[in-house]
Design a protein that fits this description.
The chain is 47% helix and 15% strand. The chain has helices spanning 11-15, 17-31, 48-59, 102-112, 116-131, 139-155, and strands spanning 3-7, 40-46, 67-71, 94-101. The longest helix has 17 residues, at 139-155.
Length: 162
């Protein structure tokens, strides 16, 4: 298994987050020509209270958010709009950690008229891309990340969230 899921909020179990996260993370790695069997990602399935604590602790933002990512290494490209470096095996097999909040995801999917399933898959793809060095702070990096997300989601039969 590529993903190791820790479920703190049982509502994620009902949605089948384990299978969704595995599918989304695998699709992301395959799209980037990486072998999913060579990597590991830890996923924390939590609620708004827990993710707000993490967001405060690690980003200084005292509020809930949908997804957080902690890459095991800085893989970001120095050149804006270009793909990050691929992880080096075997030493970079552990890509990092993702936390995802049920409350925020459910609220956002409802407000956007999307299914919770599709929104969750999108956020796991998004989080996995962050682990791989993609980001959306600079404009050209954001464009690259969004285009990559849309392409991956398309392979999974999910429409563009943008």
């Amino acid at each position: 298994m590529l993903t190791d899921i820790l479920i703190e909020d049982e509502r994620w179990s009902v949605l089948g987050l384990g299978a969704l996260a595995e599918t989304a993370a695998r699709a992301t790695l395959v799209h980037l020509s990486l072998d999913p069997s060579a990597f590991e990602i830890a996923v924390l399935a939590c609620d708004d209270e827990r993710i707000a604590t993490l967001n405060t602790e690690f980003r200084g933002k005292p509020s809930a958010t949908n997804v957080l990512s902690w890459p095991s290494d800085d893989r970001a490209s120095e050149i804006e709009g270009t793909a990050p470096d691929k992880p080096l095996l075997p030493m970079e097999a552990e890509l990092g950690d993702i936390a995802i909040s049920y409350d925020t995801c459910a609220r956002e999917s409802g407000a956007a008229g999307k299914t919770l399933h599709d929104h969750t898959v999108h956020l796991i793809v998004h989080g996995t891309l962050h682990l791989l060095g993609f980001d959306h702070i600079r404009d050209l990096d954001a464009t690259l990340m969004e285009e990559t997300e849309v392409a991956i989601l398309g392979t999974l039969g999910i429409e563009s969230p943008y």
